[in-house]
C-alpha cells in the first residue's frame, strides 16, 4: 500500500457525499478534514426531527426502541442515553489482529461523510468530534473479525464509536497505543455523551468495506498498468511480435480496457529492435497466449475495475443508515445498509487480480524455460547448474498465484444469519474486502518477479537494441537496487527492491517519462 505522507490541502465534507480522492487523502496522507457550515446546518435540522420524535409516546426504531431482534421493546426516556452507550459497548466485540491504520481512517472518514449528510439525526457535536479525532491522528483499535457486511460493519464501527466516547484503546499520532480517554484529553477533545439515535447512527454503515474498495481501486489501477509494462517487456525479451497490438485489431472487439492495455504495450515497444526476430531463424506463426492475449486479460480487468469504480462512486454519494431522516421529515427504516453492491465488486476485483497474476506467471515461466525462450539460458542463470538463476523466484511467484486463486473464491455468496434470524441474510462484504487487500499485495509481488525476469532476459539479448521505454526501465530498476545479469544469484533483497519499485509506481513513471501518460 502507499506510504503515508502528509498533504496540506484540506478535505471539506459537505452534505452531498465525497470523492475517492478525498478518501485516499484522509486515509493514506492524513489530510485535514473540515465540515462545511452547510453540512452542520443540515445535521442540526435533522437532529431537531429526532428530538421531536423522542418527545412523543409513539415508539420509533433506534430512537425509543431496542435494536435488531430486540426492537419490540419500548425504551423509556430515562434509559435512552444508556441504551446508546450500551449498543456501542456491546457491539465492540471484534477479535483478531488489528486492521491497518489507513483502513480505520477510511472507515471513520466515510462514517463522518454519512453523519454530515443530515440524514442520520445526530447532533453537530458528534460530527465535529469525529472530524477532530481524524485531525488529531487518533486511530481506534479495530480488529480483523466482527463484521458480516450487513446492518453495517458493526464491530469495526463500534470500536471507532468507543473511542469517540473516550473508552477503549486507540493509537496516537506517534503510533503508540494508549487509553482513548488519555489521547482525547491530550488533544483537547471532549468525549461525546451519546443521546437518542446517535449510537445506532455511528454503527450502521458499510464504511469499512467501502473504504477498502476505494483504496483497492486505486492500487489495482496502478498494478494493471504495471502489468501492461511487464507484459510488453516479456514480449520483447521473447522476440515476439507487436503486430497483435495494432489498434485496428482491438477496434473490432471494442472492449475499452482491452484497447487501453494494447495501446500501453504498443507504446512501450515503440522503436524496439527486438520484436519480430522470431521469424528469422525459428519461425513461429503465433506467440503463446500469455503473450498474444495479454491485452485481453488485462483489459477485462480494467473493465471490471471501471464497474467497481462506478459502484464506489454511487456509495460515496450515499447516506447509509437505519432509520434515516428523509428530506420531508419522515424517519423511515430501510435496508440500505446491506453490503451486497460493494461485496460483489470486491469479489469481482479479486477474480480479475488472480487472472492477471496467473498470466504474468505464465510469461515468467516461458522466459525461464530454455525450450520455449528462444535462445535464453536456462532459468536466466549466469552459469546454469552452478547458478539456479530465477528458478525459485518463479516458485515464489507460482505460490503467490495459487494463493490468489484461493482468495478469488467469492465471499459474497455466503450468508450466516444473525440476531435471532432478524438479520437473516448478510453480505460478507468486509471479508471480501479483507481478502482483496491480501490478493493485491500478492499481485504486486507477482508483477515484481516478472519485471526481474523480463529485464534480465532483455539484457541477455546483447546483440539487440530494446525500445527507448524498455531502456528507461532497465536504468530505473538498477537505480532501485535490483541486481543485473552479472550477479551470482537473485535473492529476496532483489525481489523486495523490485516489489517496492512496482508498488511505488516507479515502473509506470519510468515508462511515462519516455512515452507520456499511460492509460
From TrEMBL:
CDD domains xref list: PAL-HAL (cd00332)
Enzymatic class: lyase
Pfam families from the UniProt entry: Lyase_aromatic (PF00221)
Keywords: Cytoplasm, Histidine metabolism, Lyase
UniProt catalytic activity: L-histidine = trans-urocanate + NH4(+)
Cellular component GO terms held in the UniProt record: cytoplasm
UniProt xrefs under PROSITE patterns: PAL_HISTIDASE (PS00488)
GO biological process: cinnamic acid biosynthetic process; L-histidine catabolic process to glutamate and formamide; L-histidine catabolic process to glutamate and formate; protein homotetramerization
EC number, UniProt record: 4.3.1.3
Molecular functions (GO terms): histidine ammonia-lyase activity; phenylalanine ammonia-lyase activity
Superkingdom of source: Bacteria
Modified residues (2,3-didehydroalanine (Ser)): 151
Pathway: Amino-acid degradation; L-histidine degradation into L-glutamate; N-formimidoyl-L-glutamate from L-histidine: step 1/3
Ranges annotated as spanning the membrane: none
Post-translational modification: Contains an active site 4-methylidene-imidazol-5-one (MIO), which is formed autocatalytically by cyclization and dehydration of residues Cys-Ser-Gly.
Positions of crosslink type 5-imidazolinone (Ala-Gly): 150-152
Cellular compartments annotated: Cytoplasm
Family statement drawn from the similarity comment of this UniProt entry: Belongs to the PAL/histidase family.
Protein name in UniProt: Histidine ammonia-lyase
Organism lineage string: Bacteria, Bacillati, Actinomycetota, Actinomycetes, Kitasatosporales
Gene: hutH
Amino acid at each position: 500500500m502507499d506510504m503515508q505522507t502528509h498533504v496540506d490541502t484540506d478535505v471539506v465534507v459537505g452534505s452531498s457525499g465525497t470523492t475517492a480522492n478525498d478518501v485516499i487523502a484522509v486515509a493514506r496522507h492524513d489530510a485535514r478534514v473540515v465540515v462545511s457550515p452547510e453540512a452542520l446546518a443540515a445535521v442540526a435540522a435533522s437532529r431537531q426531527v429526532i428530538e421531536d420524535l423522542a418527545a412523543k409516546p409513539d415508539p420509533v426504531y433506534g430512537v425509543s426502541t431496542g435494536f435488531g431482534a430486540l426492537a419490540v421493546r419500548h425504551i423509556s426516556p430515562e434509559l435512552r442515553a444508556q441504551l446508546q452507550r450500551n449498543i456501542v459497548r456491546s457491539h465492540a466485540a471484534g477479535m483478531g489482529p488489528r486492521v491497518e491504520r489507513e483502513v480505520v481512517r477510511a472507515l471513520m472518514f466515510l462514517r463522518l461523510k454519512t453523519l454530515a449528510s443530515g440524514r442520520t439525526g445526530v447532533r453537530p457535536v458528534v460530527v465535529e468530534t469525529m472530524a477532530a479525532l481524524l485531525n488529531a491522528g487518533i486511530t481506534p483499535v479495530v480488529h480483523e473479525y466482527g463484521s458480516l457486511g450487513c446492518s453495517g460493519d458493526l464491530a469495526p464501527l463500534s470500536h471507532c464509536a468507543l473511542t469517540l466516547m473516550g473508552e477503549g484503546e486507540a493509537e496516537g499520532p506517534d503510533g503508540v497505543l494508549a487509553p482513548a480517554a488519555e489521547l482525547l484529553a491530550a488533544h483537547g477533545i471532549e468525549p461525546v455523551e451519546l443521546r437518542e439515535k446517535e449510537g445506532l447512527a455511528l454503527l450502521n454503515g458499510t464504511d469499512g468495506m467501502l473504504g477498502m474498495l476505494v483504496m483497492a481501486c486505486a492500487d489495482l489501477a496502478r498494478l494493471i498498468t504495471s502489468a501492461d509494462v511487464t507484459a510488453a517487456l516479456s514480449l520483447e525479451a521473447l522476440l515476439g511480435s507487436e503486430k497483435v497490438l495494432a489498434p485496428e485489431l482491438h477496434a473490432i472487439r471494442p472492449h475499452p480496457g482491452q484497447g487501453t492495455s494494447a495501446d500501453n504495450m504498443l507504446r512501450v515497444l515503440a522503436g524496439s529492435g527486438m520484436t519480430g526476430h522470431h521469424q528469422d531463424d525459428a519461425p513461429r506463426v503465433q506467440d503463446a497466449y500469455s503473450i498474444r492475449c495479454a491485452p485481453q486479460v488485462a483489459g477485462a480487468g480494467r473493465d471490471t475495475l471501471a464497474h467497481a469504480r462506478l459502484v464506489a462512486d454511487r456509495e460515496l454519494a450515499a447516506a447509509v443508515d437505519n432509520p434515516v431522516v428523509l428530506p420531508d421529515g419522515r424517519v423511515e427504516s430501510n435496508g440500505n445498509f446491506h453490503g451486497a453492491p460493494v461485496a460483489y465488486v470486491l469479489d469481482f476485483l479479486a477474480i480479475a487480480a488472480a487472472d492477471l497474476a496467473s498470466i504474468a506467471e505464465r510469461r515468467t515461466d516461458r522466459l525461464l524455460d530454455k525450450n520455449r525462450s528462444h535462445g535464453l539460458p536456462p532459468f536466466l542463470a549466469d552459469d546454469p547448474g552452478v547458478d539456479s538463476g530465477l528458478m525459485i523466484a518463479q516458485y515464489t511467484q507460482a505460490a503467490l498465484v495459487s494463493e490468489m486463486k484461493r482468495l478469488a473464491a467469492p465471499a459474497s455468496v455466503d450468508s450466516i444469519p444473525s440476531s435471532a434470524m432478524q438479520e437473516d441474510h448478510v453480505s460478507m462484504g468486509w471479508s471480501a474486502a479483507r481478502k482483496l487487500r491480501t490478493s493485491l499485495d500478492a499481485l504486486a509481488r507477482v508483477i515484481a518477479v516478472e519485471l526481474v525476469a523480463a529485464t534480465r532476459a532483455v539484457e541477455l539479448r546483447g546483440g539487440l537494441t530494446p525500445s527507448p521505454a524498455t531502456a528507461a526501465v532497465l536504468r530505473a530498476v538498477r537505480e532501485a537496487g535490483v541486481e543485473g545479469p552479472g550477479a551470482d544469484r537473485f535473492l529476496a533483497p532483489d525481489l523486495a527492491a523490485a516489489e517496492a519499485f512496482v508498488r511505488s509506481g516507479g515502473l509506470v513513471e519510468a515508462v511515462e517519462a519516455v512515452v507520456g501518460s499511460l492509460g
